[in-house]
Amino acid sequence: MLKTKTNDDKVDTLLTKGLVPIIDLAHCGTEETPVRSVVNRVGLQLQKCLNEKGLCLLVNHGISDEKLKTAWDHLDDFVDLPSDVREHYIRTGDDNHGYVRPGVERFNGKTPELRHAFNICTLNAKNLPEEPLPGFAEHISSLAQDFKALSRFILQALAVSLDIPQSFFLEKHSHMLSGDHDNESTLRLLYYPPIIEDTDEKNDFIKGSCIYSYQRCLSDKPDFRPETNPRDEINELDGKDELNGTTERQLPNGEMIRCGAHTDYGTFTLLAQDSEGGLEVKLPGSEKWQRVGHLPGAILINCGEILSIWTRERYPALPHRVVIPEQQHIRSRGRHSIAFFCHPDNLTMISPNDLPNNEIGTDTVDKKPRKKSFKAAKEK
């Protein structure tokens, strides 16, 4: 029996309105020898997409959907491990590598981000949970290499789009995932727990997992495996229940947020999602938050602050956030995503003078001075 689509199921998104550019990367060649004509074509497309929208979707990018789903399965298995086992892989000190519990990160300095994250900054197996989860290290390392290879292709296309030597950005990003602390590039596995309405009509957050498929967006039967409430983990950190009630996570219109508004500070970010999970953006020149939408198998690319500085805002950094969808069948399941944050090497000086000063439809008069170093942009 076919499920009847109700008004509650309809999500008005940039994608459904045809406002998200899509770039086909088919036949782009190998990492070592990319097809020059494809690099040139993608460069021209990126020039238009990133200047006008700050984002686009990549299809036929070479990273299989099955490989992404397996990575999310590995993350679910990690979250299901006993807390004392997970503690061995907690992110510590100045090293960004490792597991981040719900409630630790706060984009606005106050509201805890309710998500599990595992940051991959090095492919050294000893820093990955291979012993409790056989196959984790091998699969995630392979996936990280795939995202690195895709990033290297994008870096070449970006150079072409800016009329500079094709190898310019490659040389500035030569230490990605090297593990020698010379580059901040990170593959991040993310899991946002589902929202369950409790008897007091307050939102509660529990751990759970769902069966992945392209039809998953229409499924109203998530396969939950409830365990401990993430509140308990946050209470252990802070000594108090900071999630009591929902007011801190509400927007003025009553919407709830999963991840606060921010811009990424790197060169660009690649994002894969398992479903439409509430990602919203502010397009260049607009103050309106708009839902992006989900194209199965596609990877979203958005600009970061360093690329914006490098290009004198020709490619603006894209403000984005994750809200809890209003549709009950979407909010009652978890959301998985994988982000690859592409950063230049730490010693790279970021100067707009590196690039030709040929703005694309913008006026350069009276622009305020921009921060010109990686350190300054990162501290911001």
From TrEMBL:
Basic and acidic residues bias locations: 222-243
Location of region: Disordered: 222-248, 352-380
SUPFAM superfamilies: Clavaminate synthase-like
Composition skew (Polar residues), residue ranges: 352-361
Pfam families per record: 2OG-FeII_Oxy (PF03171), DIOX_N (PF14226)
Any one GO molecular-function label of the UniProt entry: metal ion binding
Claim: Protein biosynthesis is one of the keywords in the record: no
Entry-linked Gene3D superfamilies: B-lactam Antibiotic, Isopenicillin N Synthase, Chain
Ranges of biased composition (kind: Basic residues): 368-380
Oxidoreductase among keywords: yes
Keywords: Iron, Metal-binding, Oxidoreductase
Span of domain Fe2OG dioxygenase: 233-344
InterPro entries: DIOX_N, IPNS-like_FE2OG_OXY, IPNS-like_sf, Iron_ascorbate_oxido_reductase, Oxoglu/Fe-dep_dioxygenase_dom
Entry similarity comment: Belongs to the iron/ascorbate-dependent oxidoreductase family.
Protein name, entry field: 1-aminocyclopropane-1-carboxylate oxidase
Organism from which the protein derives: Ceratitis capitata (Mediterranean fruit fly)
Gene field: ACCO1
